[in-house]
Amino acid sequence: MAGAHAADELLLGFARALRAAGVPVTADRERTLLEAVAEVGMDDRAATYWAGRATLCGSPADLERYDQVYAAWFGGRPADGASPPRAHRTVTVADLSEGAQPAGAGGDEDDDVVRAVASATEVLRHRDVADMSPRERAELAALFGRLRPRAPRRRAHRHEPWRRGTVDARRTLRAELRRMGEPGTVQWRRRGQRPRRVVLLIDVSGSMSPYADALLRLAHAYACAGLPVEVFTIGTRLTHVTRSLTQRDAERALVAAGSAVPDWSGGTRLADGIRAFLDRWGRRGMARGAVVVVFSDGWERDQPEALGEQMRRLHALAHRVVWVNPHRGKAGYQPVQQGIVAALPHIDDFVAGHSMATFEHLVEVVARA
Question: Which end of the chain offers a freer environment for a tag, N or C, measured as fewer CB atoms within 10 Å?
Fold first, then answer.
């Protein structure tokens, strides 16, 4: 069994390398490759070569790249497997983002080496949103449609029937009465679960403007997922934009939210914004027991002590407080801004928020809260 597992890992690695080299290898083709090689046997190099070529290549344009990746991955072509050698050519699949230079352009490396660095989508997932071109931002907008936000769960007051847990004496007794006292199956119950509310507070001040569009798209993904979610923007004032973001079409939703927010790219008054949220909505119950996510770089115009006091109030009401800083995941970053220093004692999770990969991580952090 261990040998079969190692062979599968080798073949799946080959399929991933082929995909990175530009051949459209799907999950179905990978599964078909494993089944085909299991039939012919991994020991037969020629049969393995032809099995991969038949299952992974979809057009004649894929054959040359298949031969080169096969030679690099398995250490040469089988004796009766490959097509005649072609002119020496180096195939390099490198960072496909704008301005990137392919590695090995000098031609010093072996001509048969295939460098599969990353696909364009994978590179885009890790790019800083602030550094993207308009074309890349348009491609990133499509990736937000793939996000599947989930609400954290909390225990409900009511119980629900379950396979195991505690004995449901009432249901068990009622069932026996219906059977005229004849013994039967014991009924069980457990404490039910309900989705916990998620509140998003998005800083739209001047220092956060390069990330505002991406953050509102993330909020739109939450608002359209059918979760108990509320969205506010904070600049020089607090604005409730949940209704605008519930439109299914992302572009229409962002236009509606933009029309509702009067203080785009202005100053930052985080303490006043959080105070307004707590005084008007939070103490009524919106923040009580909720997961509150604050998106901000921590630049505060007012006294940082005021922000620290409001974060203390927020932390006392909320189930969990998450602070998302776009600079958190960058090399050399230190949380030295006065606002961040004042808020940190009242934060449960301090995470990065500058790329699609960090947004995906944030979705998991919120779901686990």
Answer: N
